[in-house]
Amino acid sequence: MMEAEQAEVAKGFLEWIFSELDPSFRPHRIDINMGCPSKCTTSRGQVLKGGQHKRSGAGSSLLRSPDYVETVTRAVHEGIGENNCCLSVKMRLGFDNDLLFERNLLAAAQYADFVQIHGRTKADGYSKPARWERIQEAKELLQNSNCRVVGNGDITSGEQARELVDKTGVDGIMIGRAAVSNPFIFKDIRHAYGDGNSEHRSPRDNYLLFIDTYFQNLKRLHPKHKGKPSFERMLRSKLKQIIANGFLTNVEVVPPKLVKSMTDLLTTSEYCSDRIYESIRTAIEECCV
Known about the structure:
The protein is of the alpha/beta class. It is 48% helix and 9% strand. It starts with 6 loop residues before the first helix and ends with a helix. One of its GO terms (molecular function) is RNA binding.
C-alpha cells in the first residue's frame, strides 16, 4: 500500500532487499494493493480547495489516474529487477466510476505478472453486485499479453467459483471476505473442481467446524493463564471479534437470520466465554441448513 509519491522510495527499498538481505528472507511475490476502499487509506490524498489533490492517496485512490498506476507499478517492477519475484496488482474497476478501467488495467499490465480485479469501484464499496462482465473484458483485453487475470468479487461457494471462471475465462480466482466467515470455502472450491480428497460440507457444518476449531485453539493459548480473569476477558473479546469481523462484515454471504442472531449476541455483555460460544453454535444450528 503506497502513494504515487512514494514510488521511488519503494523502488530503492526493494533494490536494498534484493541486494543486501539473505536470500531466505527475500520475497517471492510483491503485491501492490490498488483495491483497498477504506477511508483511512484513500484519504491519504487530501483534496485541497479548488479540487486539487495534495497527494495521490493510497489503495484505490491510485485508480484516479493511469499515471499513478503506471508510476507505482513501474517503480516496483524496476526495484525487483531480474530477481525471481512475482509482481501482482490488486485493483478495482475505478474510483468514483469505471471510466478509466481499461487505461488503468493496461498501465498495470505493462509491468505486472498478473492483476487481481475486484468487480466494483471504490464508490461501490461492497453494496452492489460485482460486475463479472468487466472482469471478462479485462481477460479479453490482455489475452495476448504476458499478464494473467485473476477474478474477485461475490465468490461465496465452489459453484460460484466455477461459474466465474466459466463466464470470464480468468486464469485464477481470489477469495476475500467470504473466507473470513467460511475459511472452508477453499475446500468447497476444490470439491467443485472434482478433487475427490476434498470433503464437501454444508454451510451449517462449515460454520460449526469453524467456530469449534477457533474456540478450542483460543483456549489452548497461554494455558498457564487459564482460569484467570484476564484470560476470560481475552476469550470473550476474541469471540466477539469473530462475530463482528467474521459474520457481520459479510452480510451478503451470511444467512440473514444468522446475521440477526449474531447482532443480538454481539450486544450482550454479561455472558461468559463458554456461553457466548454455545450461543454462537445454537444460532448456527438454528439459522443454517
